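Incident review: delayed structure delivery

Summary: a single-chain prediction request sat in the queue longer than the usual turnaround. Root cause was a stuck worker, restarted by the on-call engineer. No data loss occurred. The affected request and its eventual output are reproduced below so the record is complete for anyone auditing the incident later.

Affected input:
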Amino acid sequence: MNPFTQLATVSNLLKVPPRRTLASALGDDFSLYGPAGFILRWYALTIDLVMFAPIHMLIRVSMSQYLERLVAHGQSGRAFAWSFFAFLIPVLVYFVIPTWRSGQTLGKRIVGIRVITAARQPALTLADTLRREVLGKAASIALCGAGFLLMRGSPRKRALHDYLGKTMVISYAAGPSPAK
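Output delivered after worker restart:
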């Protein structure tokens, strides 16, 4: 494969197709695709964090003087609330909305994995996505990563946030799994 073909392939991965296009490309039969393992999911998370960190830091740095003034004037509660929203907004924009709309963040798209419902349906509800991306991942982190390691013992490779969000992650990069 020549470098121009590889570049075209990478640029195609970065395009965000409409919700139905990706499901149609996979044939709407998600039972054919195996669960994504820990390593693929770790790669996707690493890519996502590399993309997310600068966005988050840009917002935090731009608000730092305002937050310091609030604390200096004895309004630490208000400073905490603004700090919380400064973290929550990028999380919603980068993680929750793309996962809800297409089942993928940029990292998942590059690696070739997708979030679907535990019943192997493509359409995620906003409530399930919020439970998965916000509550579930926060709980997994609060448990010192034990929630992420739960997928090692699960036959469908589901972590704590997948159970809370009633989801699972499939790998479609290698194509359908062979029939058993």
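Verification: Residues 16-21 have pLDDT under 50 and may be disordered.
Action items: add queue-age alerting; document worker restart procedure.
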